[in-house]
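Async update (no meeting this week)

Hi team, since we skipped the sync, here's where things stand on the single-chain job. The sequence we agreed to prioritize is pasted below, unchanged from the tracker. I ran it this morning and attached the output directly underneath so nobody has to dig for it. Comments welcome in thread, and please keep replies under the output.
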Amino acid sequence: MRSGTSVAANYRAVGRARSRAEFVSKMGVVVEEADETVFWLELLVDTGVVRKALMESILAEANEVLAIFAASHGTARQRRSAQ
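Output:
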């Protein structure tokens, strides 16, 4: 629960970034937190706490969210380098 809500809280902070550099930095934190969330969800399955069948759609969505944030972070980094 904490890991997932951390993604949302940090993404909210991205919207308040005062510069492109701060945006890129904060988005990097969002990517890290989203990746950590995927890790914890996978761990729940791997340890047998939650059945894989119950977690498949949640894991798929978590990985999609991670991919979206990672792509956004990558784009922001490229644009920052181009300046």
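Quick observations from my side:
The chain has a mean pLDDT of 94.
The longest helix spans residues 52-82.
Reply here if anything looks off.
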